[in-house]
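Justification of computing resources. Each target in the renewal requires a structure prediction run like the one illustrated here; the chain below, 102 residues long, is used simply to show the kind of job we budget for.
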Amino acid sequence: MIEGMSPIPPQGAADYDPSKKAREDAKLKEAVQQFEQVFLKQLFSEMRKSVPKTNLMGEGKEQEMFEGMLDDERAKAWSQSGGIGLADMMYQQMKKQNEGKS
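Resulting structure tokens:
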């Protein structure tokens, strides 16, 4: 190691915990992925309103419940497999902001 250089940041060196940073990053990734999931579910729901209704699955509350559950699962699957890139973009932006606070 170069004399006078330390991998530990000088301010708050006693509080430096690399595992804490990793946990915070994991929490941030999970939060933005959940946000993208909620966004996608809302997007699917609004898109469904623009499509004419059919009687393929019947009518009424049962169909609405099924469509809502289907939208939930689609949004979950999409967000877990990379989604539309919203979570990644938000993660990168929020990570920069958090680094600036440290």
